[in-house]
Design a protein that fits this description.
Shape: globular
CATH architecture of the largest domain: Alpha-Beta Complex
Mean pLDDT: 87
Helix content: 40-55%
Order of helices and strands: HEEEEEHHEEEHEHHEEEEHHHH
Number of strands: 13
Distance between the termini: 64 Å
Largest sheet: 7 strands, antiparallel
CATH class of the largest domain: Alpha Beta
Structural class: alpha+beta
Number of domains: 2
Number of helices: 10
């Protein structure tokens, strides 16, 4: 009789260790009698490993997310566990509490937050309850404008409350994304190199112009905006990047137009604002100006670079379309 092949994670004692820790802590979180329901699924992502346990407690069932970060020096679960607790992960857990306090203080009924459960030092994990929700991109189309408007409200609160937004002037350090893009364009299409040079030229023209600078979300896209069944909105996974506040708005605008494997071709760049983009700006209370336009061009060329890098996995018809759409915006 042929032996059954082992499960992909069976040889990974890191997985069993994590599940054992979760199993031990569940009664502390939810009281005597609480237990795991089955073996939790494991999702391996580029920069984290997520365990998705379901907890059965007296009269209740709770879905959790146990997130263990990965980084360059710890690219897999075993390395991350061996590295021990990390201050960046503690800070991520603390940020969840600050966001909850921010939303609660605002008393804004259209907003919500992800409930934190605990930080597990021995496996360097952040534990949260899974929010029943869809991402902004997956939300029903009629709900997207209202959800986007709420995301704009959330972002303005975040910039003012947590990001400590303050007036300043545009400086080279505000455009570190552009420095990174310039280092990546060698060997890529000439049109992209020309677009990057154009963004650099425009940035130099705008140096010294007034801006509002804050610790921004840094990675705001449709996948980080959650919409609950009753229409409330929560935003997750801030990277905390000092930048002009327009940088967050611009990154979201470009992400809305250029999802990873397809494009919203019905709304080509250069023909006004995407309806959902307009709703975000309305919620934020922003009037697009020259700094927003610069940040939008910068976000577009960065997205263009990413699409070129991913081109091996993009369908032949999608890549030329992506190039046309992004070239129109970043040129």
């Amino acid at each position: 009789m042929t032996a059954r092949p082992p499960r992909p994670d069976a040889a990974d004692d890191g997985v069993d260790r994590v599940i054992g820790v979760i199993e031990r802590l569940v009664p502390e979180w939810y009281g005597p009698g609480a237990r795991l329901r089955g073996r939790p699924p494991v999702q391996r992502r580029p920069w984290s490993v997520h365990f998705l346990p379901r907890v059965t407690a007296p009269g209740n069932e709770i879905d959790l997310i146990v997130k263990i970060p990965l980084w360059a020096e710890a690219p897999d679960l075993r390395d991350a566990l061996a590295a021990g607790p990390q201050e960046a992960t503690r800070a991520e857990f603390a940020m969840l509490g600050r966001i909850e306090a921010m939303v609660t203080k605002s008393a804004e009924p259209s907003l919500t937050w992800v409930r934190r459960v605990g930080y597990i030092e021995e496996i360097n994990a952040v534990v949260t309850e899974r929010l029943a929700s869809r991402t902004l991109r997956a939300a029903p189309r009629p709900r997207r404008p209202a959800a986007a408007r709420s995301a704009g409200v959330w972002l303005r609160l975040f910039h003012d409350d947590i990001g400590a937004a303050a007036d300043g002037v545009l400086e080279p350090s505000d455009l570190l994304d552009l420095d990174g893009v310039e280092q990546m364009v060698n060997g890529l299409p000439a049109a992209l190199q020309s677009a990057v040079a154009g963004v650099r030229s425009r940035a130099e023209e705008l140096m010294g112009r007034p801006i509002r600078r804050a610790t921004t979300h840094g990675d705001l896209g449709p996948s980080n905006i959650l919409v609950t069944p009753d229409g409330r909105v929560g935003v997750i996974d801030p990277n905390l990047v000092p930048a002009p506040v327009e940088a967050d708005l611009a990154k979201l605008a470009v992400a809305l137009r250029t999802p990873r494997w397809r494009l919203l071709a019905g709304f080509p760049f250069g023909e006004g604002l995407h309806p959902v983009e307009r709703a975000v700006l309305e919620g934020y209370g922003a009037v697009p100006g020259e700094i927003y336009a610069l940040c939008r061009r910068l976000a577009a060329v960065r997205r263009w670079v990413e699409i070129e890098a991913e081109s091996g996995g993009v369908r032949r018809i999608a890549l030329p379309m992506a190039r046309r759409v992004l070239a129109a915006e970043s040129g």
